[in-house]
Design a protein that fits this description.
The protein has about 375 residues and is of the alpha/beta class. It folds into two domains: about 1-125, Rossmann fold; about 160-385, Histidine kinase-like ATPase, C-terminal domain (Heat Shock Protein 90, 2-Layer Sandwich). The protein has eleven helices and 16 strands. The protein has helices at about 30-40, 50-60, 80-85, 105-115, 125-190, 200-220, 240-250, 250-255, 275-295, 325-330, 350-360, and strands at about 1-5, 10, 20-25, 45-50, 65-70, 95-100, 120, 235-240, 260-265, 275, 300-305, 310-320, 340, 345, 365-370, 375-385. The strands form five sheets. The chain has a five-stranded parallel sheet, with helices on both faces. Strands 9-11-12-16-15 form a five-stranded mixed sheet. Helix 1 links the parallel strand 3 (about 20-25) and strand 4 (about 45-50). The longest helix is centred in the middle third of the chain and has 67 residues, at about 125-190.
Length: about 375
């Protein structure tokens, strides 16, 4: 059975087959046979060990669901065996019930101090032994179920947090574009001290920005968190050149605000790519936004794409900015990893993580080539028709 430790690690235990696997440890062969027969009659799967050392080796081979452990054994006694089990991350979860002819309170106290869960005094009574075993197995099953529920809840909370951060992160670009347009219109109105007419092209741009916001909201709401972050793809064929032309137009005001120059080297004759139009747009926009965010004004950003012999398209966003340190490159695409822009840490650290999830969902790869003060080139591949 798969058991979850307090650290969230999965530990392999005996598969459930209707029998619980009990390890009986006693250096007296007669006692060992008696206990083994007693448990086998009650449909337990029993393994035996005649010494503490043999018990530890047996546990390494196959972990039991519970251990019945005699205290007074030659060589390594039961207390020592239990201590070694509890010090091992892989075996500390196994319940240990001590068995002993000693009935002194101090002996019982020591048994619990070293990690035992119960103590049975010899001579053994079958009904008492079975009752105590079943009690500990029930407690262990309940604990196991509780830890699994806690882990699942923790995963759900992390998933929800990521989802909410992703919504706020990806909505920024179209909202910022709309904000810049409205800000410029208000500025013109104040300067002229009268109402101004709005060009149809600006209205169209505002409409498209709102459409993108709605599409992102709908996409994110419908998406479930899973192993690939729940990236749901609406597959279609489209022109990458046309997508970039449209994006360039929508980002013009933001580029002007950053005094940045955008060079579009996406050829018209480039083969159509296969994928989700809006998800791929999110990748390009996140990479473009990062180039502006983490560099000083006045940079040049070059967008490129070319076909590969593998039947894919190689896409890149290159800038001549400050570059990225080798330390940052090692974990740049991990969740909540933020870069340093112009002397301060910026953003949630989700943009590149989301880009990687989207590109991977398309069956592509993503990476970066960069050196400090020599600019950066973020690249990714996409399938074609």
């Amino acid at each position: 059975m798969a058991v979850i430790s307090n650290e969230g690690r999965f530990i392999l235990m005996t598969p459930k087959t209707g029998q619980n696997n009990i390890l009986v440890v006693d250096d007296n062969p007669d006692n060992l046979r008696l206990l083994a027969a007693m448990l086998s009659d009650r449909d337990y799967s029993v393994r035996k060990a005649l010494s503490g050392q043999m018990a530890l080796k047996t546990v390494e081979t196959r972990q039991p669901d519970l251990i019945l452990l005699d205290i007074n054994m030659s060589g390594m006694n039961g207390y020592e065996v239990c201590q070694k089990l509890k010090l091992n991350e892989d075996t500390k979860h196994i319940p240990v019930i001590f068995i002993s002819a000693m009935d002194d309170v101090l002996d019982k106290v020591k048994a619990f101090e070293v990690g035992g869960v119960d103590y049975i005094t010899k001579p053994l009574q079958a009904e008492e032994v079975i009752a105590r075993i079943e009690n500990q197995l029930t407690i262990w099953r309940q604990k196991q179920q509780l830890e699994m529920e806690i882990l699942e809840r923790k995963k759900a909370e992390e998933s929800l947090q990521l989802y909410l951060h992703a919504v706020s992160h990806d909505l920024k670009n179209p909202v910022i574009a709309m904000s810049i347009i409205l800000s410029n219109l208000q500025k013109k109105g104040r300067e002229r001290e009268k109402e101004i007419s709005v060009p149809l092209s600006l209205l169209k741009q505002m409409e498209e920005s709102c459409d993108r916001q709605l599409h992102l909201i709908n996409s994110l709401i419908e998406t479930r968190q899973n192993e690939i972050w729940g990236v749901s793809l609406d597959w279609q064929f489209f022109s990458l050149h046309e997508l970039i032309e449209k994006m360039t137009h929508e980002w013009q005001l933001q580029l002007e605000r950053h005094e940045a120059k955008l060079v579009n080297n996406i050829p018209v004759e480039l083969p159509r790519v296969k994928g989700d139009y809006y998800q791929i747009l999110r990748v390009w926009e996140n990479l473009l936004a990062n180039a502006l965010k983490y560099n000083s004004p006045g940079i040049t950003i070059t967008l490129e794409a070319k076909p590969l012999e593998s039947g894919r398209v190689y896409c890149s966003v290159r800038d001549n900015g400050i570059g990225i340190s080798e330390e940052q490159l090692d974990h740049l695409f991990q969740r909540y990893q933020r870069g340093n822009g112009r002397g301060k840490s910026l953003g949630l650290g989700l943009g590149l993580y989301l880009c990687r999830q989207i590109v991977n969902a398309h069956g592509g790869e993503i990476g970066v080539d960069s050196h400090p003060y020599e600019g950066s080139r973020f690249w990714f591949t996409l399938p074609t028709d």
